[in-house]
Design a protein that fits this description.
With about 190 residues, this protein is mainly α. The protein has 2 domains: about 60 residues, no CATH class; about 120 residues, Arc Repressor Mutant, subunit A (Orthogonal Bundle), CATH 1.10.10.10. The chain contains 7 helices and 3 strands. The chain has a 3-stranded antiparallel β-sheet with strand order 1-3-2. Helix 3 packs across helix 5.
Length: about 190
């Protein structure tokens, strides 16, 4: 579903190329229902169109995150770990399992993120005084400062992306998204 590559030689993408990419994605979605109905006339094309929009939103969200996190030289998983630790308080320390319940990444992804964040000095692992077989993960003072810097930067871009919407309109969209998430949770988890 990714638009064809149209990079300008030696520099960032030109505004016309970016606009063409945006149009490509929307045109692909606009024609998907008709293409689906023609290929599979006995299926619910509205359901497929719904999930095509969700898939496009997921891909665009991932692309947006990668672009925002690239200057900070961290991955989405690392960002989620830093933010997950930070939003729970400065003294927050937890086991990798509990942290993963909050940030929802694979165990291999969690291990990679923790290893990279520890090597950078942003987190520390320490023995768990309540369970000798377990460790605790916590932010270092440098990790707290870095998490706050990244969240402020990412948050400013989030706000800019949503700027045309009023608070009321944004709240209504969030309420609609909550319904979507609840529906997907029932379908995926049961």
């Amino acid at each position: 579903m990714a638009p064809p590559e149209r990079k300008a030689a030696g520099g960032p993408r030109e505004p016309d190329a970016r606009e063409a990419d945006r149009r490509f994605i929307l045109e692909l979605l606009d024609g998907s229902q008709e293409r689906h109905e023609a290929a599979y006339p006995d299926t619910d094309s509205d359901a497929f169109l719904y999930f095509a929009h969700l898939s496009a939103a997921r891909q665009l969200t991932e692309t947006f995150y990668r672009r925002l996190l690239k200057p900070h030289r961290i991955s989405d998983a690392e960002f989620r770990v830093l933010n997950g630790l930070r939003v729970r308080g400065k003294a927050f320390r937890t086991t990798p399992l509990e942290l993963n319940r909050f940030v929802q990444i694979t165990s291999a992804g969690m291990t990679r993120a923790l290893d990279r964040l520890e090597a950078a000095g942003y987190i520390e692992r320490s023995p768990n005084p309540e369970d000798r077989r377990s460790i605790l993960i916590g932010l270092t003072p440098e990790g707290v400062a870095f998490a706050e810097l990244v969240v402020r930067d990412v948050g400013a871009h989030f706000s800019e992306a949503l700027r045309p919407a009023s608070k009321r309109a944004l709240k209504a969209e969030i309420d609609q998204l909550r319904v979507v998430v609840e529906r997907l949770a029932r379908a995926a988890i049961g």
